[in-house]
Design a protein that fits this description.
- By secondary structure, the chain is α+β, with helices and mostly antiparallel strands.
- It has a single domain, classed as Glutaredoxin, CATH 3.40.30.
- It is 32% helix and 26% strand.
- It has helices spanning 5-11, 13-26, 97-111, 133-142, 156-165, 203-215, and strands at residues 28-31, 36-39, 54-55, 66-68, 74-76, 84-90, 119-125, 149-152, 170-174, 177-187, 193-198.
- The strands form two sheets. Strands 1, 2, 3, 6, 7, 8, 9, 10 and 11 form a nine-stranded mixed beta sheet that branches. Strands 4-5 form a two-stranded antiparallel sheet.
- It is globular and about 45 Å long.
- The N and C termini lie far apart (37 Å).
Length: 216
Amino acid sequence: MIPGSASRAQRSLRRAAPIAATAAAVTLLVGCGGSSEREALGPQTTESASSSGQKVPAGTVAADFVLRDQNRRLVRLSDRGGGVTILTFLYTHCVDVCPLIATQLNEVLRGAGARSAHVRVLAVSVDPRFDTQAAVTQFVRERHLVPQFHYLRGTAAQLKPIWQAYNILVVPKNPDVMAHTASITLIDSDGRARIVYPATATAQDILPDVERLLRS
């Protein structure tokens, strides 16, 4: 286990609560291979950031965490290097929603062009049992994910506080299907969560918001 990773996420739960509320308003509990199970409950926000995203209350700090990526490198959310972070939650055995999210976010990274060095995707596993090193490596390779796309894995003890901090409900349905809240969170260079998108958001929805934050 990475020392202190769970405790840091737990200490951030109270500050990250507004992210959870907004995420619940725009996301669905989904099980790959089927349609959405139910709408996640939560208060609606009225200010739209893009055609699909919703703004997070001003000043909301994204809960910090550290995990290892597909290259076994430690990646910390707060180590942004002055850039923009796109946070999502996936699992490798998913056959529809997760690959779609990964593809769209990979297109965001490609679409950022010369600014792509200042944009990264952090995809946190929701399946610690089956998101093995080999499975994650294969997922990244088969989808031609660019180096700025970090698929983060860990133990259940490491991952659960992160799911809780971002209101990610994970429900194992059978060995092949993990029903989970699907959301995409855009985090600025100061570590503030700015916009939450549903799983159906496209690169065309997200990229203009990314470019706006890079210019600010």
